[in-house]
Amino acid sequence: MTRLADIDFSAASLDVARRLIGVTVLVDGVGGRIVETEAYDPGEAASHSFHGPTPRNFAMFGPPGFSYVYRSHGLHWCLNVVCREPGHAAGVLIRAIEPTHGLERMRQRRGLDDVRLLCSGPGRLSQAMGVTGAHNNLPLDAPPFELIACAEAPAVVSGVRIGISKAVELPWRFGLAGSRFLSKPFRD
DNA sequence: TTTACGATTAACT
DNA sequence: GTTAATCGTAAAG
Predict the structure, then answer these.
(1) Mean pLDDT value of segment A148-176
(2) CA A155 – CA A163 distance, rounded (Å)
(3) Strand boundaries in A73-155, DSSP class E
(4) Across residues A97-104, what is the average pLDDT?
(5) What pLDDT shows up at residue A3?
């Protein structure tokens, strides 16, 4: 049984990343169940917080349980959950969700019908849920955000992270075992 | 001020 | 399998 109170955002990003699997995340009532996450920690070079605070990543240095939204490749928004205590600047990237709430809204925003392609990637799920830079540095336990814990602890698999060039060997990617909504399958 | 590049995606061959 | 799209950010000059 995973209750929302069991998710302590002041814990290490590894723990938070694993525990977020199965949790439902909504923005304005639209969203779904988290099936894939990645942990980032200032101790490793792949993290945006590795080089210290900047105008982009300041949200990571704020309180845990807040959002950190950044723009990737000039066109995609990516949603992160800040964890650890303020100043430590660790975070968890939400990489994929299983769409459950507001399917029509998400189809409209994404411009396609295939449920499987709606939210299977960090940029995709942000577009589907309407997340933009305006959602940066907001508390996740207050509107427009909403988190709903799952009834049972899900089976979680892990592997190496995707799309990075530093610290590529760390197995800090987590996913819901057997999910059809992952951005890429786990082979590890 | 200039420049190079990215925690990506989609559309190609 | 490869590559173009597209621009904010940060490091270099």
Answers:
(1) 90
(2) 24
(3) 76-83, 90-101, 145-148
(4) 94
(5) 62
